[in-house]
Amino acid sequence: MHILVIEPDLLLGGTYVRALEMAGHTTTHVTSAQEAIHAADLRRPGMVVLELQLPGSNGIAFLHEFRSYADWREVPVVLHTYVMPHIQRQFRDVVSEQLGVVSWLYKPQTSLEQLLSTVRSHTPAS
Amino acid sequence: MKQLVTTAIVLGRTDFGEADRILTLLTPEYGKLRVVAKGVRRVKSKLAGGIELFSVSHITFIKGRGDMGTLSSTRLIKHYGVIVQDIERTMTGYELIKQLNKLTEDEPEAGYFELLQQSFEALNEPIVPLPLIRTWFTAQLVRLGGHTPNLHTDSNGQKLDATMQYDFDTEKQTFVPHPDGGRFTANHIKFLRLIFAGNTPNVLAQVQGIGALLTACSPLIEIRGQFN
Description:
By secondary structure, chain A is α/β, with parallel strands linked by helices. Chain A is built from 5 helices and 7 strands.
């Protein structure tokens, strides 16, 4: 599956990309919302792994933009973010329902293994 | 075909064909408009510029025979860029846009445009608390819908007294005198008058004791909001 990783930290992004590729996926790593739209346009992702805190914008704005295109509406999105769980809780239901977020991971408490297992659990069986 | 110019706020957008987008716009002169923005490819998406969310723009459009117009040019007047630097403010911004989009008829009065513009101004000021913006927004919808509560006389038709305390009767939509200690004092009523008089959140944020006033008055406003 092709996974679009939207992660502003280059080091972390590189780590996730290597781990996902070792697990058999192909990836594109971008660091901003605008690059993400461009990357998705070049190659439709099967899944998006998204940090909410992005330079000059944020993941929520990206998701609204992303979902406004019909052919990206069904792409599952995994949030993997530094946004604290108590803040996430304030808008988790709305975002999950309206913007198609399938999983919420709090980055400081999520191991690479947990990230991979979350991606695996939302990967359609081939 | 007639070319028209107006000020607009983007309420929503969706794709249309290979490279076009349909924008739903709120304008002071023409109410809600649906226009086709031709040739707006994804790489030139809202995130890149043009007609942005959380912004006010001058637009020129051609009114077609049907419901849909065609956008011919845009010029950004103001972008409220601070909003997207904060996730909670962004979420609230989208909620308000969605709520207004749902509530407004095809030709809403200019007050709705002003309401959304003032909401953006408030969201763009990090010192204005989000609960105040949400409550203020609901109050303005109530006001524009013509359901402002009676803030001048009580259930007996007497002028509201600064020395009295009151409860609020949600069925009759009036304050009821409660000599033994009602929930609402003169300060609460003054605050409600300020909100329903259309003062902006940026002004209301300066009211002393805003947190406590908001806690006490929000339920009353939210109940009114449900009647809208």
